[in-house]
Amino acid sequence: MSELLTKAVLVATIAGGIRLAVPLLLASLGETFGQRSGVLNLGVDGIMLLGAFGGYYAVLESGDVWLGLAAGIVIGMLLGVVSALISVTLLAEQGISGIGVYLFGLGLSDLLFQRLVGTPTPIPKFPKLDIPGLSDIPVIGETLFQFSLIVYVAVALVPISIFVINRTTFGMKVRSVGENPEAADSLGVSITRVRWITVTIGGTLAGVAGAALAIDLGIFQQNLTNAQGFIAIALVYFGAWRPLGVMTGALLYGLVNSLVLQFKTLGIIPQSWSDIAAMAPALITILALVVVARRFRQPAALTKPFTRGT
Amino acid sequence: MTTAGAGLRSRSRYAAYLVPLGAVGTALLIGALMLVLLDANPIEGFGAMLSGAFGGADALTSTALKATPLLFVGVGITIAFRANVINIGGEGQMVAGGLLATAVALVLPDWPAAVMLPTVLVAGMVGGAIWGAVPGALKAYYGVNEILSTIMLNVVAVQLMNFLLRGPMIDPGEIERGTRIPQTQRLQEGADLPLLFGSGRLHIGPVIAALVAVAAYILLWRTPVGFRVRAVGQSTDAARYAGIPVKRTIVLALTLAGAMGGLAGAVLVFGSESHRMVTDGSTAGFTGNAGFNGIVAALFGGLHPLWAIPASFLFGGLLVGGNALQRAVQVPTALILALNGLVVVFVVASDRYRRTLGERASQAETAAKLAAQAAAEAPP
Amino acid sequence: MRTRPLPWAAMVLAFVMLAVACGGDDDAADTTAATDGATTTAAAADETFRIAVVAPSAVNDLAFTQSIVDAVNVVAAERGNTEVDITDGTFVVEDAAAAIRDYASQGYDLVIAHGSQYGGSLEEIAPDFPEVAFAWGTAADTFGLPNVFAYEAASDQGGYVMGVMAAALSESKLIGIVGPIEVGDAKLYVDGFKAGAESNDSGVTVNVNYTGSFSDVALASEAAKAHVAAGADVMSGTAQMVVGAVSVANDEGVLWFGTQANQSSLGDIVVASQVYKWEVVLREMLTAIDGGTLGGTTYEINLANGGEVIEYNANFDLPADVAQLAEDAIAGIADGSMSTGQ
Question: Is the pTM here over 0.95, yes or no?
């Protein structure tokens, strides 16, 4: 146990936890917008996978990581639009249409990878950002300030999201549509337009999350996300539909995973218990949920498609 | 009745059936396009798909076997849905049911089939029921959203399965040989699902599933319990006002749905070729995504337990046919997965339209009846 | 909403009739499309030797499945007049069983079930098709059936050799291994590698981390970073998720040893890879089949029969003394004078 408390290991654990949390955070923030307006999108993982492949392929062909990120944005937006079409305009059953998008994304990303790329080929990664001054602070500097740009972008999106949801007119519309669409409708808010926008935002951020994952890992493979998209959805509930809560959840999940990894590397957890240990993040999330759920309610209109007169 | 009314009624009603078919057709059309892009012959592909799914006794057997877990899960979904609860924990419930049933078969001595078989099937139901009751209770008593808890429990289930199948429940022969494949030993023969025709592969699983579907129908529409479930689904306030224990009913609905999933898992284990439980490390390796596809099959059947039977059969045929297509034209398996997703998306997306058509059909029918009544009562 | 059963029944009936009608055409000689790199034949169906492969992961995973697919294609090209059909990505065991059964019923000459988890199903399927030869890998059990071959890799051997090299190349004397799950082929490799690294009393410590998944690339990446943070300057690992670990090795300038396939393309820090050349045993299998024996033998690829080959990365400058250590180890294991302890 004492090996865990060395500086190097602690730094690595926390840094690793933050890195693992970033794709979750991005996708989760996007899903928060959608769910706050009453739409559940279970296809997040599929969008992440397609964004991951798109980003990977763009970087592979061009050598430019930012082009890869842009690809992630475009693909995510496209799939967000499709998801909005399905859930908002066609009023499909939200819990299930998302699964279809997931299966489609899983299969298509693998198919494209097999046909267009073939063997896993490494790609350049995001450059690490050196913030003059901050990066040099001993311990804290290494832990918190030696990441690539995407990490800071993800974290910055949290206060931006808080601001948008709580302090803009649009955010107010989002909240009202999610709580009481009939009332919002009677006040002249276009439910359809608001939900289209939030679902598209959700898709876009999921695409970015996927691209960020692929570029950060520097490689692509089938099922690269390993169902993290579903964890991201769960984190929205964990965070009680608030960006700060979502970030807390993502960090918790990432840190627990990172800690388990360290324990295994240092031999603290014997290999035979590794499967039980792998349950830890999921179990902790459920436990924390029971605590959280007593105090927060979900948006009243979540998963209920809206038509005037229903 | 007026001719116009009759026309509208019959057109809308049959259109309502055609909608899911049209959805599947559209998805398959896109699939054909993808086949062409991959240098495969779509006609040959879809021909193989049809014959692989329905073209002969062997194919029909495969389809029936594939459809069985879909039907179980679909019936469970239907029950939960009537109480307005969404159950996407099917994957975890199948695993939990399979594990408990397997454990029971391993622990109990070799009993005769007449005793063993019901025992393991009930064990499967219990395992799945627990995996459904937990999110149910969390929702009813702690307000934890069931989508979240079922997703998390899916994750926990697969880790539990890996732990048990690599550890306490592993085939002792594997340890001896040092290969440590994560599977159990060949389970006792008393637990084998009997074959329907004495030989071949078709076991009684599909029959059990069909019977369960009928039982669910009776439960929902002919028993007080079912009435409570449906009442809670219509309006929790009205149900509460009528004295129905809403929270307990929600837990019950999810528990029943879980039990169905668990039964699917047990049938998968004891009906499998290898007669043992084996894992590759993922839930889908065991369930074949039946936990998700079962939801689609239920939708395909209009969320009615009886119509889930032909719907599951057709959907099972789609899945079996898809694999046959892969083998015939040698496209990557990933394409079949993407196609599966497309079908799900199109069927689900068109569902509202189907329901609208169906409503219009019954509205037209009501209007026609009223018109007929008015005509009959009108003064000559 | 009241629904009538008639339309449903009619639909099902229609499908069945349609399918049976179409099914009749399938009996004629089928020419199927070529797969990547496989040779197909225009000759009559009964002269063509047909091989089918059912595998759990993707054909291009640079690991388990790719190794068998590459080998089958090599053998097919050598032999000529051979058709190769592949069903990859079949991690659903029941689907794999259906695929194996289907290929067998279509009269393929050799059906390769490339996945340990397929064994239980194969045991039930093989007796139904006595004219078809089956091969099961990686495994050592033929179930006492006359038409089942088994094949496995002595991955500990190549692991041992690379462990020796790793210990010699490591300056920090700390080596990290990223493994999937402690079973089968993976465990064998890791144990062999560890034995090799510790064999020279060089004072090297080997940390092993089984991430618990064959496919979680992000976890493998983090596991590698954990090793690096602990001070490892040489790493190795097995299974398809190691691409994440190799990427980290690239970034940190840490050396890497690969297995199952040649991983040199992943970076210049890849020193060498133990490449599985399944074609060595596939050739023997085909010879047996030609001679009328459809199973009953267990094959092993190892350093001695050339089924396992250590392929060095041309872009890595391997010091001559380390290369000599490796050659000595290979020779020693091949002629039996050295033991990997497994």
Answer: no
